[in-house]
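Fold it.
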Amino acid sequence: MVQKEKHRDTKPNENDNKNENELTNHLSLEESNHEKIQLLENEVEELKDKVLRKSAEFENYKRRTENDQLNLLTYAAESFISKLLPIIDDFERSMKHIDSVNDNDSVKEGMGLIYDKFVKLLDEQGVKKMESKGKPFDVNYHEAVMQQKDDSVAPHTVIEELECGYMYKDKVIRHAKVIVSEDN
């Protein structure tokens, strides 16, 4: 009888094998599920990141579009005003020529009134004439046509203005064409 019990102890139990297989299957299934969960969590994080980026891109696009529309409305008349500037230049030259000819004071007066109305209209629209003579040269406002030696002013100072520059609101629509003093 002792031998039979010994035999029983040494012989593997079918239930133990079955439990061990179930445990191994359960562990491998759990590992597989854990891997799947990790993959899904990574995918969710990637998708969240993509959504955040797309949202930020859309906000930037929206802001750019609003700025473009605002600039379009703000500077809508720029093209038209730029076309008027040569006319005001001609007007100013005519006014200077009329001053040199003392024929008809009423014509001078009439031209002066028209010129003043024209300048006032441009001023109401936000167009300002830039004063350049005697100021330091600035590439943002001036276009240097030539340089001259002039010891009475500092180097890189506007000596003479050949053509007036104009600002439309806060933007230069025509740079002043100027003569600048050379280095001493």
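The helical segments are 2-10, 14-74, 78-100, 105-124.
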